[in-house]
Amino acid sequence: MVRDFVIVGAGLAGLARARVLAEAGAAPLVLERSYRPGGRLATRELGGATFDYGVVFVSSHDRDFLTWAKNAAGDRLISGWPQRVEGLGTPCQPWSLGATEERFALRGGLNQLAVEECRCVVQAGGELRLNTEVTALAAHRDGIEVHVANGEVIVARNLVLALAHPQAVALLATLGEAPIARAMRATLDLFPAVPSLVVAAVYDEAPQLSWDISYPEDSLLQLASHESTKTPADGRTVVVYQARPNWSAKRIEEPKENWRQEILAEAARLWGPWAASPQHLHAHRWKHARLDGSGTAQRPLVVPFAGGTLTLAGELFSEVGGVAGAWVSGRRASAFTGS
Predict the structure, then answer these.
(1) What is the tens place of the pLDDT at every residue in 29-55?
(2) Among 93, 159, 189, 297, which has the highest number of CB atoms less than 10 A from its own CB?
(3) Alpha helices for 174-216 (secondary structure H)
(4) Prediction pTM value
(5) Which residues, in sequence order, are CB contacts of 123 under 8 Å at separation 6+?
(6) Other residues' Cβ atoms within 10 Å of the Cβ of residue 280
(7) Strand runs (DSSP E) across the chain, as ranges?
(8) Are 4 and 338 in contact (CB under 8 A)?
(9) For residue 275, what pLDDT band results from cuts at 50, 70 and 90?
(10) In this model, does residue 136 exceed pLDDT 60?
């Protein structure tokens, strides 16, 4: 099967790229290995509660992104969240944002932004395949072969990799020593990603918390997000604990039961014994949680390859950065490939 446009990754970068193409009549195919789109815009339901366990709020000064996000969110938008902030830890302190920067969360979770963008892609004629893992790439006379875990081979005249860049590096490595692929890998290696271990905890009984987000100092925790201030959980308290990158990196391959207990014990030290004993919990490894802050590549990277194009898009490839940067990168990728 030969397709004009194939996009690997259904985070905001891949979906934004797909929407531009679909609305131009190009019928892109989006391949996503997870069972749902969104990447780090990750929302889950557990014990009757809904919470974000990746990105917990979004901030940006990019007006196009903010307009799109507000339209996609509709009446679920919680403008200005978080409002009550405890602690002086880093990163992403709301008070550090610029004067033109806006922040927001969504009732029901940020993943709804990705779901809405998927709806627009499909409505415009694009195709989305979930639970579809791409395992390898290879040069082909008509473009680039995309090998899928189920044995299917799709030939893409134009291929977009919209992935966490360590994942993109792994796929580019399957192209062997092709000079362009090697150069792309070298570029990606300049911008390391950092991990974060996360525990989401649902409590039937907990004291009333005075904060929406806490940024502890001198702690293994990077932040704690009081998710039930975004989406009430029938009297339950929902808190998502995210560990610092250095601490997470040392434990990223350990069994979950090891580090989740350490995270809950630290929460108990900071906020009280109740925090160690949730009624429901979900532990997650983000191996590539975010960029390490060393900069960005400013714009999508598009190169000719095997008669077509090979594009890298995502948070790294925009001067905006973060979730907004991923979306902006996906939109701008179109300018470099003539669509």
Answers:
(1) 999 999 999 999 999 999 999 999 999
(2) 159
(3) 179-189
(4) 0.94
(5) none
(6) 15
(7) 2-8, 29-31, 43-46, 49-52, 58-60, 77-79, 85-86, 102-106, 127-129, 134-140, 143-148, 153-161, 193-203, 213-214, 221-226, 237-243, 280-291, 301-305, 308-312
(8) no
(9) very high
(10) yes
How would DSSP label each residue in 131-145? Answer: S--EEEEEEETTEEE
- Distance (Å, whole) CA 65 – CA 118: 16
Distances (CA, A) of 292 to 56, 112, 191, 262, 288: 18, 26, 7, 24, 10
- Residue given tokens 């190169």 in the structure block: 303
Residue that has been written with the tokens 């780090």 in this structure? 40
Are 165 and 193 in contact by the 8 Å Cβ rule? The answer is yes
Beta strands in 80-191 (DSSP E): 85-86, 102-106, 127-129, 134-140, 143-148, 153-161
- Joined together, the tokens standing for residue 295 give 């900069």
d(C-alpha 58, C-alpha 80), whole Å: 10
Which pLDDT score is estimated for 67? 97
Please determine, for residue 309, whether its predicted confidence score (pLDDT) is greater than 60: yes
Which residues are within 8 A (CB) of 260 and not within 5 positions of it... i.e. 6 or more apart? 197, 199, 281, 283
CB 258 within 8 A of CB 74: no
Cα separation of 283 and 5, whole Å? 36
How far, in Å, CA of 74 to CA of 90, rounded? Answer: 30
